């Protein structure tokens, strides 16, 4: 009988920041001290993180590592996030909310949104579907509390995520990982040695002459892709023809309104983010360099802050897209080295998180089976493409025609996979989705309706449920939401009571 291949003895992570230290923390938690994990980073090389907004799966990542929520929020100057308010996206002067949670409450075998849509199209309900989102009811009132565990309560129908300082999160995870045996090495990588026989990475050389060997390498080096691209030439799929923004300027400012949600405001050549933390508000203007200069973008950003800027605007450049192979040879790219999806729906940390979880599930042994890499690449490609389509929807669905960017987006062709979904919703109010998609039905409903894609008719089954007292149920849901929100603490009070960072930390 042939002996089984030996487990990995050494893993080398190149790059720190959120991607590197999330990877180190999760791997050290998963494999313990049975495998040596080394992370190489240089204090001289900055990270991109400027202030992160996240989506609910980040909670599961932290829980899996056994990280206490209150401690985490306190250590990262964090706050809570119930969704994203989109301002001026559909048309100027209009806003809508993308919630983390369902709309309304189910009271029939037909989904709630089918009944709402029938009533809305018939003119029997006033206002947007936002009015039936528990997340939005809380968000606009500036309230926060944890969801109820009793599924019979309206307070159980929402979810939440976090805002936090990405640099503080990386530092927190560094302490976590080092406590579990991860070795940090300070230095810049100047050379990558490939094995002659198969092109696998053998070792990397640092600027002081030291050599670090390993069996498996994880590239968290950022946009540069030091291992995955510069050494292994994995290739890159450029998606800028669908997602044209290629620049951002970012700046923190004094904290204004402490809202439990992110805000995305469409601008002439892109959009501006607003992320409230305990000690400041993070801001940025994502834009297309074809339609505005960096100086003009910075001036626009500085003119639309809550308070005094706390630093000079920081420019960032990127190419939206993904690696053709995320895992090639004995190297996996995680984070910006794997690809970049602009932060419109706060997916950056999610892609890191799921890249790590997928790697742990498919972790190779010393045989380095190419089947594992093939499956990893297939799953990750599908995930990127689904997120890509959801982001494109925001640009394509806009009714704005007031600037070159928005006119370009209105005219641009889109992937067939997205057009198929839009056609179904526009014609019949039907949502076409795969159960493995990151963004579930409420997310698509929010953007479709929020940006003016209104179905020609409600799904047929809703019209066949005449015996259901829909108007009465809608009224009961509105009343239950109002009562629930009235008893909740404000976002500020909740944090002050449970997870406030000490004043000296700011």
Please provide a written account of the structure.
The protein is an alpha+beta fold and 506 residues long. The protein folds into two domains: 210 residues, FAD/NAD(P)-binding domain; 162 residues, no CATH class. Helix content is 33%, strand content 19%. It contains 14 helices and 22 strands. The strands form five sheets. The chain has a seven-stranded mixed sheet with strand order 6-5-15-16-17-14-18. The protein has a six-stranded mixed sheet with strand order 8-2-1-12-21-20. Strand 9 and strand 10 form a beta hairpin. Helix 1 packs parallel to helix 8 and helix 8 packs antiparallel against helix 9. The radius of gyration is 24 Å and the shape is globular. The chain starts with 9 loop residues before the first strand and ends in an 8-residue tail after the last helix. The mean pLDDT is 95.
Quick overview:
The protein folds into two domains: 10-79 and 164-239 and 323-386, FAD/NAD(P)-binding domain, CATH 3.50.50.60; 102-159 and 388-491, no CATH class.
Give the end-to-end Cα distance, rounded to a whole number of Å.
Answer: 61 Å
How many DSSP helices?
14
Count of individual beta strands: 22
The percentage helix is: 25-40%
**What kind of sheet is the major sheet?**
7 strands, mixed
CATH topology of the largest domain: FAD/NAD(P)-binding domain
Provide the CATH top-level class of the largest domain.
Answer: Alpha Beta
Strand order of the largest sheet: 6-5-15-16-17-14-18
Any idea what the CATH architecture of the largest domain is? 3-Layer(bba) Sandwich
Number of domains: 2
Can you tell me the CATH superfamily of the largest domain?
FAD/NAD(P)-binding domain
Q: Over the alpha carbons, how many angstroms does the gyration radius reach?
A: 24 Å
β content, as a range? Answer: 15-25%
Poorly predicted segments? none
Which structural class should the secondary elements be placed in?
alpha+beta
Shape: globular
Instruction: Give the integer mean of the pLDDT values.
Output: 95
């Amino acid at each position: 009988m042939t002996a089984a291949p030996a487990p990995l003895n050494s893993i080398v992570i190149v790059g720190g920041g959120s991607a590197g230290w999330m990877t180190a923390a999760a791997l050290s938690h998963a494999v313990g001290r049975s495998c040596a994990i080394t992370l190489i980073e240089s204090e001289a090389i900055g990270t991109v993180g400027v202030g992160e907004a996240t989506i609910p799966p980040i909670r599961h990542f932290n829980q899996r590592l056994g990280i206490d929520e209150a401690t985490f929020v306190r250590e990262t100057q964090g706050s809570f996030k119930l969704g994203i308010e989109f301002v001026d996206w559909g048309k100027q002067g209009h806003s809508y909310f993308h919630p983390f949670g369902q709309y309304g409450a189910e009271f029939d075998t037909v989904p709630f949104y089918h009944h709402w849509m029938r009533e809305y199209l018939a003119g029997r309900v006033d206002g947007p579907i936002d009015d039936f989102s528990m997340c939005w009811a809380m968000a606009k009132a500036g309230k926060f509390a944890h969801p109820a565990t009793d599924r019979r309560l309206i307070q159980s129908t929402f979810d939440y995520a976090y805002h936090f300082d990405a640099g503080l999160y990386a530092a927190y995870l560094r302490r976590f990982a080092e406590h579990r045996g991860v070795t940090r090495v300070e230095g810049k990588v100047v050379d990558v040695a490939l094995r002659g026989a198969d092109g696998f990475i053998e070792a990397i050389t640092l600027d002081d002459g030291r050599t670090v060997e390993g069996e498996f390498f994880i590239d968290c080096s950022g946009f540069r892709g030091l291992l995955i691209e510069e050494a292994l030439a994995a290739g890159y799929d450029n998606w800028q023809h669908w997602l044209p923004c290629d620049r951002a300027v970012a700046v923190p400012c004094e904290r204004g309104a402490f809202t439990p949600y992110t805000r995305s405001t469409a601008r002439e050549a892109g959009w501006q983010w607003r992320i409230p933390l305990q000690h400041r508000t993070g801001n940025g203007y994502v834009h297309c360099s074809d339609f505005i200069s960096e100086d003009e973008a910075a001036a626009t950003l500085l003119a639309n802050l809550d308070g005094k800027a706390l630093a000079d605007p920081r420019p960032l450049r990127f190419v939206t897209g993904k690696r053709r192979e995320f895992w090639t040879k004995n190297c996996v790219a995680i984070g910006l080295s794997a690809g970049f999806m602009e932060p419109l729906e706060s997916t950056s940390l999610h892609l890191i998180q799921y890249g790590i979880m997928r790697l742990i599930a498919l972790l190779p042994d010393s045989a380095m089976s190419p089947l594992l890499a093939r499956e990893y690449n297939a799953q990750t490609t599908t995930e990127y493409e689904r997120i890509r389509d959801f982001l494109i929807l925001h640009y394509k669905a806009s009714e704005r025609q007031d600037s070159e960017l928005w006119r370009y987006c209105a005219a641009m062709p889109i992937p067939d996979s997205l057009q198929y979904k839009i056609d179904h919703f526009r014609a019949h109010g039907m949502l076409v989705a795969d159960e493995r998609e990151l963004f579930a039905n409420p997310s698509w409903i929010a953007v479709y309706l929020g940006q003016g894609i209104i179905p020609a008719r409600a799904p047929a089954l809703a019209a066949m449920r005449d015996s259901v007292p829909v108007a009465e149920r809608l009224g009961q849901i509105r009343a239950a939401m109002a009562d629930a929100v009235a008893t909740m603490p404000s976002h500020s009070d909740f944090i002050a009571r449970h997870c406030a960072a000490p004043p000296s930390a700011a």
